[in-house]
């Protein structure tokens, strides 16, 4: 440990140039070794390092150029997509407007058709009611006529005897004969 502390104390002490030997001063020898290594690296590695940096620079520039080209293509595609979107939106608006007007037109046609159908059904209903009323009236007339005829026959059969029957027939024949003479 004493050697380490001594080396710190004697930093300013350099061995004389005439002597050759081991330098036990660690810091001084490290600085010399480091400066020699750095000097050799700079002298010999300058070209390699320069080539590496140039290659890296070229790759970065190529990447930037490629990125710019891709960005330009992406902007171009974006503009095309926006144009296509505007066109599709206009077509959609047109379809929507046409669709709404078509829906309104169909709705009005359906309403008109429904009104016509209802009107026809009302007419058919009224005609059916009128027909049924006429049929019912005719049936009632027939029944009344049949009942009146049956009543008249019953009355005639009960009131008529053979003599009255013959007189009625003779009177009717006489009336037909008089009518015949008038028409000639």
From TrEMBL:
Description of how the protein assembles with itself and partners = F-type ATPases have 2 components, F(1) - the catalytic core - and F(0) - the membrane proton channel. F(1) has five subunits: alpha(3), beta(3), gamma(1), delta(1), epsilon(1). F(0) has four main subunits: a(1), b(1), b'(1) and c(10-14). The alpha and beta chains form an alternating ring which encloses part of the gamma chain. F(1) is attached to F(0) by a central stalk formed by the gamma and epsilon chains, while a peripheral stalk is formed by the delta, b and b' chains.
Q: Which parts form a coiled-coil structure per UniProt? A: 64-98
Q: Does the keyword Coiled coil apply?
A: yes
- Annotated protein name in UniProt: ATP synthase subunit b, chloroplastic
Q: Keywords, A to Z? A: ATP synthesis, CF(0), Chloroplast, Coiled coil, Hydrogen ion transport, Ion transport, Membrane, Plastid, Thylakoid, Transmembrane, Transmembrane helix, Transport
Family classification = Belongs to the ATPase B chain family.
Q: What else is known?
A: In plastids the F-type ATPase is also known as CF(1)CF(0).
Q: Which domain of life is it from?
A: Eukaryota
Q: Where found? A: Membrane; Plastid, Chloroplast thylakoid membrane
InterPro entries, A to Z: ATP_synth_b/b'su_bac/chlpt
Q: Where are the transmembrane segments?
A: 26-49
Where does it sit, as one GO cellular component term?
A: chloroplast thylakoid membrane
Q: How does the entry describe its membrane topology?
A: Single-pass membrane protein
Entry's Gene Ontology molecular function annotations? proton-transporting ATP synthase activity, rotational mechanism
Q: Does the keyword Membrane apply?
A: yes
Q: What is its main location?
A: membrane
Q: What is the purpose of this protein?
A: F(1)F(0) ATP synthase produces ATP from ADP in the presence of a proton or sodium gradient. F-type ATPases consist of two structural domains, F(1) containing the extramembraneous catalytic core and F(0) containing the membrane proton channel, linked together by a central stalk and a peripheral stalk. During catalysis, ATP synthesis in the catalytic domain of F(1) is coupled via a rotary mechanism of the central stalk subunits to proton translocation. Component of the F(0) channel, it forms part of the peripheral stalk, linking F(1) to F(0).
Organism the protein comes from: Consolea macracantha
